[in-house]
Specification:
Number of domains: 3
CATH architecture of the largest domain: Roll
Oligomer: single chain
Helix content: 10-25%
Number of helices: 6
CATH topology of the largest domain: Nuclear Transport Factor 2, Chain: A
Strand content: 25-35%
CATH class of the largest domain: Alpha Beta
Structural class: alpha+beta
Length: about 425
Amino acid sequence: MKTGKHARWKLVMVTLGVATTASCYQEPPDVGTLDAVYAAPAEHVRISVLRDGQTLGQLLEGSVSYNERASLLLALREHANPRRMRAGTEVTLRFRRGDESLRGVDVATSRDETVRLSLVEGAWSSELVRTPIYVDTLTAAGEINTSLWVAVVGNPVLNSMSPGDANRLIDQLDKVFQWQIDFSRQIRVGDTYRFAFEREVRPDGSMRAGRLLAAEMVTANTAYHALWFDPNEDGDGSYYNLEGESVRGEFLLKPLTYRRISSTFTNSRFHPLLKTWRAHRGIDYAADRGTDIMATSDGVVIYRGAKGTFGNTVEIRHGNGFITRYAHMSRFQAGVNVGTRVRQSDIIGHVGMTGLAGGPHLHYEILSDGRQIDPLSVDLPADDPVPSENRFRWRFEMTAHVALLEAIPGAGPVRMLADDQDRDQPEDHPGGAQ
C-alpha cells in the first residue's frame, strides 16, 4: 500500500510540474497600445536683452508690479548689482501657463553664471546657478606649411573650436615655448607640432578654460617639449622638459607676443630717418600702436619717462647685473613707476612711435653690466627644475603625458631622455623627434 500511494503522489507531482512548466511558456495577452499623451509645459518663457541705457527695472515694467519689482531686485542684490547690468545682458522671464503670472526670472550675469529668481509664497528668492561644463582633452599633430597659426587653426581636430578659442590655444603654445622658441622668426616650413590640450566646455561648445597638458615642437630638426606639472598641487604649476628641467627662463625671448622682428642687433644699420649708417644695439619689433609690452624678467623699474631719441622709455634692473630697456612707447601702463617691482610678463606699457621712430614698433635692449648685448643670442639662465622630493610623482605624470602625445594618430614616438637624442626616429611622423 505504501508503495502504491507513493507512486500515485509521484504521478500527481509530475503532472503538476508539466502543467506549471507549460503555463510558464504561454504567450502574454496583447493589451494593445495607448495613444501618446502630451502634457503642456507648466510655464512659457520670454527672453529679452537689456538695451543700451535700459535698467533691469525698466525691462520688467508691465510684467511685475512696482512693489514686487522692488522685492525682486532686492533678492537679485544677493548675487549681483542690478545697477551694473551691461547692455546685452540676457534676461529670461518665466510665466505660469494659464494665468500668465510671472513665476521666475533668470539673469545671465556672465557666460558662466546665472542668477535664478523664483517667486515662492509671495516672496522672491535667488540662487546662483553656474553654467554646467564637461571636460575633454584635444590632441592634435601636424606640419607647418605657412605659419603655426594657420597650421593649428586648419587642423581638422579643431573644427569644433571657435576662432577665439583656437587663438587662446595658440597663445598658450606661444607662451609655454616663449623661452625656447621665437615663433616670429624661428618657425620654418616643414616644422612639426603636436599637443594635448585639456579644456572645460560649456553646453554651447565654447571653452570656459583650457590648459596645455603636453606639447612638442620640432624646428630645425630640434625637438622641444613642455609638460605640465604642479609640484604643490595648488594650481600654480609650471612646464618642464622630458628631463624635468624648467622650460621657463629668467628672461622671455621677446617682450611682445607673436610679433615680427623689423630690425636686428647690428654694428651697422642704415637709419631710415637719419639716412646714415649707425649701430643698432637692440631688437625692433613691428607691432600695432597700443600693443601690450611685457617685462621680460622679474625686476625693479629704474627709469620711466622720455629719453631723447628713444621717446617714452622704461628701464628695469634685474638680477645678475642685467637691465632691460623698452623704447618708443605710446604710453606707460598705469602703476608702473620708478621703484615699482614687476614680474615676468607683467604689462609695463604699450607700443607707439615716440622719439625718433618711423612707424609704430618697440625697441628692446638687454644690458649686462652696462654693455648692450644681443637679446637673440645671449645664453640666459633657466628657472628651477622639478624639486627632488617630487621626482617620483613627476616621472609618473610625465609618462602619462608622453603617452597622450604618442597616442595621436601618426605622431610617432617621443624622445624620452637626453641620452636618446641621437636615436633614429621615423622621419615621416608629424611631430616626432628628429
